[in-house]
């Protein structure tokens, strides 16, 4: 216990020290929200990766989908690496950095407002961000409850209050730069921690081959009659697995807190390096988490299940049960690993929420003539408000098991990606996107997920799953934008040409990049 407490104190001390050190970078809006657009490849890549993967992934998703799909759940982590990281950097990174700087936008709603010259669109997008990021923020605490109970036997409420206060201190003090540096430190912990934990769990089951052999002998008639299905290449439900991959991988392209990382990229070199680093990070962390979760059924002798074959304590109980007999030092590493994952994502979410509400909703709409200093002050105050709200939601859900909140958390990802993914991607590449098509996509994406929450029973069985519904919400956006744009008012050509002029600026490059024959 003393060892674990010492590890936690050192971890928290470093986080707070970094926040205090970075105060000088957060004196204006550009510095506080984007780190002065001067963040290098390692910090940007780790900020992207650690914001991507939280306790929700490690404890919740890895346990749930590992139990459902077996070792095939590793495909989810690999999809996160290839689609959610490598392809995201390649398709979005450079263009997002160029156009967001050209339009002088620091948030996704501000980007939409300036790209389509619409203050109403900026406000509408900021409302969607606010409504769906808060419950997503609260969900980060869920994965910590069982782990802290297992490791320290302390009250869950005390745990999340401490975590929230310490995260708030370094984000409020140092802004984006403090978040980026701490994300790097936390990312290193996550990389080392997941490798150590996987090795320890597999060794406890006789090694990889013996564990895989044991998994191949597990059967669950309620899932599949096929022998060894949980050790197979695509698992018992390939289509369901595909939809999970799509939502958790392609969905990141439309999440404000993820896309905002591209706004702060320093240079071309940072894009190329960042893409490789974040991809490798995702392979290890996401791939490792789902790979570990895939062996969950080997512990079915100590994980009680109900008549439907679902763990009695819920899917969140699977990973903690797998880890509870590890060495105390490894348990300490696991706790710090999950804390790192949660705090990095929490800091990213509250920074995105506060900057969006300040710059896109309050500034010039509610509060006129906001100076740079006042904008930064308001953002700092809102960070406190957002963290407080998320803590209250998390505690209420934990104490009273309010299913409404849990449902809202489940649809957050699908609603944000459904509303923003297609409009944002088209807006970076296509000049003929109409403002009306973006509005229709906002309403359709967020509306479909809200409908799924309140009127799930009226939907076809396939769409009653929030995951499947979220994927459909994303994909229909790619149809809505071109179809609606074809039948609605065309955007002003001169205005649109100016938006895209940032791509036409000529730059000099070395011969190793271009032969220069023409």
What distinguishing features does this structure have?
518 residues; mainly alpha; globular
Description:
By secondary structure, the chain is mainly alpha-helical. Helices cover 72% and strands 0% of the residues. The chain has helices at 2-21, 29-34, 41-52, 55-69, 74-102, 108-115, 119-139, 142-151, 156-204, 208-216, 238-249, 256-263, 268-293, 318-323, 328-362, 372-400, 403-429, 435-454, 466-487, 493-500. 53% of the residues are buried. The model has no long low-confidence stretch (mean pLDDT 83).
User: Helical region count?
Assistant: 20
Shape from CA axes? globular
Report the radius of gyration as a whole number of Å: 23 Å
Proportion of helical residues: over 70%
Strand % is: under 5%
Distance between the termini: 68 Å
Strand-and-helix sequence, N→C?
HHHHHHHHHHHHHHHHHHHH
Quick check: average pLDDT?
83
Give a count of the beta strands, DSSP E runs of length 2 or more.
0
- List low-pLDDT spans: none
Largest beta sheet, briefly? none
Instruction: Give the structural class.
Output: mainly alpha
Give a nutshell description of this structure:
The protein has 518 residues and is mainly α. Helix content is 72%, strand content 0%.
Tell me the layout of helices and strands:
Layout (H helix, E strand, L loop, with lengths): L1 H20 L7 H6 L6 H12 L2 H15 L4 H29 L5 H8 L3 H21 L2 H10 L4 H49 L3 H9 L21 H12 L6 H8 L4 H26 L24 H6 L4 H35 L9 H29 L2 H27 L5 H20 L11 H22 L5 H8 L18
